Task: inverse folding
């Protein structure tokens, strides 16, 4: 997976277990695979139990062969039927639990289940006039869209600590995605593969993120809202 990320032009589909039944999650995943998505991420800020995650992944695996990557909000989301986990540090959070607290609770579980960890520097960018869910929960050292130097500090820190990927996140359903310029500057200053997500709703926006240097575009809410747009986005990434 890391090798694929290094090559770039990938699309990951994010399914939130609380938004549909496991059967519906399976249908969505099947459609994502048909359209050319590269992996299914499973996560969301309100998922509470391992059971909920497990059943959703079970539904997905009945209908799709795509790798499943857990995108956890806490250690209690780690389910044994996942292939990978974004083992994340929310690097611009001021709260201990987003750096080490949940990670220490989850480490042995990841090992026991044999889930492959992807060390992820998760950087939340504040792009919207109203805070997104992740901004409300994460007690951030705020990075606004003009805080380029601060972003470079966090990106270089992430590279030097040794993270496998940097995930630039605007938050689900953000009014606007992470600006192209911010993706470009992280690409220029570091050599770590970049994931970008939050508020990417059409092919043009996705294409611009790839051109700016992102390896992976993540779309979530769109999967339930408008699957045809999903096809447009994946086609734009792969062209
Ligand atoms: C959120 O980056 C993801 O964590 C996806 O965001 O739901 O806006 O596509 P959307």
Result:
């Amino acid at each position: 997976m890391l090798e694929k990320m290094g090559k770039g032009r990938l699309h990951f589909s994010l399914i939130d277990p609380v938004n549909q039944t496991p059967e519906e999650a399976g249908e969505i995943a099947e459609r994502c695979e048909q359209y050319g998505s590269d992996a299914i991420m499973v996560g969301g800020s309100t998922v509470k139990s391992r059971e909920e995650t497990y059943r959703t992944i079970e539904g997905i695996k009945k209908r799709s062969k795509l790798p499943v990557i857990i995108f956890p909000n806490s250690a209690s989301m780690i389910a044994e039927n996942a292939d990978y986990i974004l083992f994340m540090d929310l690097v611009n959070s001021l709260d201990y639990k987003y750096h080490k607290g949940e990670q220490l609770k989850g480490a042995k579980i990841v090992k026991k289940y044999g889930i492959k960890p992807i060390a992820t520097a998760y950087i939340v960018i504040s792009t919207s006039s109203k805070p997104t869910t992740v901004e409300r929960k994460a007690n951030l050292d705020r990075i606004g869209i003009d805080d380029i130097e601060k972003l470079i500090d966090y990106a270089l820190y992430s590279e030097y600590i040794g993270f496998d990927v940097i995930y630039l996140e605007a938050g689900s359903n953000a009014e606007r995605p992470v600006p192209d310029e911010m993706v470009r500057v992280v690409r220029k200053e570091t050599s770590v593969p970049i994931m970008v997500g939050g508020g990417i709703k059409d092919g043009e926006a996705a294409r611009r993120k790839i051109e700016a240097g992102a390896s992976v575009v993540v779309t979530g809410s769109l999967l339930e809202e408008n699957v045809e747009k999903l096809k447009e986005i994946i086609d734009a990434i792969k062209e």
Q: What stands out?
A: The chain has one domain: 2-238.
